[in-house]
Design a protein that fits this description.
Layout lengths: L5 H16 L9 H7 L5 E6 L7 E2 L5 E2 L1 H13 L3 E6 L2 H9 L5 E5 L8 E17 L16 E5 L3 H9 L4 E5 L5 H7 L4 E5 H10 L3 E3 L5 E10 L4 H16 L2 H8 L5 E3 L6
Parallel strand pairs: 1-4, 1-5, 7-8, 7-9
Antiparallel strand pairs: 2-3, 5-11, 6-9, 6-10, 6-11, 6-12
């Protein structure tokens, strides 16, 4: 018969207890919970169009994508109207939630952003890649961080935050937004562009004489988040909501419906 230590038993007990006491995403939300999420009476979702994997515009110019699908489902469960607060760059979207101009948003998990935002576990994993000119001598990601190399990246993006911490020798040059990174890279005659692999692949097809370096330099964990000033119950509810959306197949179905490739549903996260 297998035995477990008291410490192990206690950790299992506490984890189970926290799950049982966490507000259920299927139960009718309490007025206090709804107020914590939507203090204005409308749930304001911060949407970043700078990442085409998460959000884009349809033929009518309306935002569509997995982040909009998740926002719509959350508002439905809370029983409140939804308002999309749309931005063209991640940094602007982060600022909106941090300063409570929006009630929640969709972000790459990062410690700098975590100072003002409470993140859920990730719901999607996305690869970050490098792009270079066809005639570039660079052939691998490991060759990028060298003196004389200038890297274009979207200002305030997850890639900007990551490279700012990790790059020791190359120079970082910031484009106004992530979608304009490659045009900025070309116009400034830089050596490397960094960003979402799928965006870089589209740009390499759109513009001549460009190629991606093989592999990836980072994996981005995309999560939902709300201001840290919101109640612990709201933070717990949102975390459980994300886990249910993954487990139920909602996220996978949304990615498939919007024909998104290169992103995978994140594994279950302990809550």
């Amino acid at each position: 018969m297998q035995t477990i230590s008291f410490t192990r038993f206690l950790s299992i007990f506490l984890a189970t207890l926290s799950t049982l006491t966490m507000p259920s995403v299927n139960a009718q939300p309490t007025p206090a919970l709804v107020q914590a999420f939507a203090p204005t009476g409308t749930l304001r979702a911060s949407i970043n169009l700078g990442n085409p994997i998460l959000a884009n515009k349809d033929a009518q110019g309306q935002p569509v994508g997995v982040s909009i699908d998740l926002a719509t489902e959350l508002a439905k469960r809370l029983g409140v109207p939804l308002s999309l607060v749309v931005f063209d760059a991640a940094g602007k979207s982060v600022d909106a939630v941090t300063n409570e101009k929006a009630d929640f948003g969709f972000f790459a998990i990062d410690p700098v952003r975590g100072q003002g935002i409470s993140f859920t576990g990730p719901y999607v994993l996305i690869e970050g890649s490098y792009l270079v000119a066809n005639n570039s001598p660079l052939t691998s990601n490991e060759q990028v961080d060298k003196k004389g190399i200038r890297i274009a990246v979207g200002k305030g993006s997850a890639y900007d935050l990551f490279l700012t911490r990790e790059i020791k020798n190359a120079e970082i040059h910031r484009a106004p937004t992530s979608p304009t990174t490659v045009d900025f890279f070309v116009s400034e005659k830089l050596e490397v562009a960094a960003g979402v692999k799928q965006q870089l692949e589209m740009d390499a097809k759109r513009l001549p004489n460009l190629r991606l370096l093989p592999g990836r330099f980072m994996v981005i964990e995309q999560a939902m988040g709300l201001p840290k000033t919101r109640s612990p119950e709201a933070q717990a509810y949102l975390k459980k909501f994300v886990e249910e959306m993954k487990a139920s197949g909602f996220v996978a179905q949304s990615l498939a419906r919007h024909k998104i490739e290169g992103a995978i549903v994140a594994p279950a996260n302990s809550i």
